[in-house]
Amino acid sequence: MSTQTGATDPYESVYHRYEPHRAGIPKLGTYFKELWKRREFATEMSKASMRGANSMTFFGQAWLVINPLLLALVYYFLLQVLNPPRGGGFDAERFSHLTGGLFIFYFFQGAVGTGANSVVGAGKLVLNTAFPRLLMPLSAVRTGFFRFLPTVPVYIIFHILAGNPWNWVTFIVAPIFALLIAMFAAGLAALFAALQVYFRDAASFLPYVMRIWLYCSPVLWTIDMIQGHAGARALAPFNPLYPLIGGYGEALQNGAMPSLHIWLAAIGWAVLACVIGFGYFMSRERDFAVRL
Question: Mind listing the GO biological process terms from this record (predicted)?
Answer without folding.
Answer: lipopolysaccharide transport
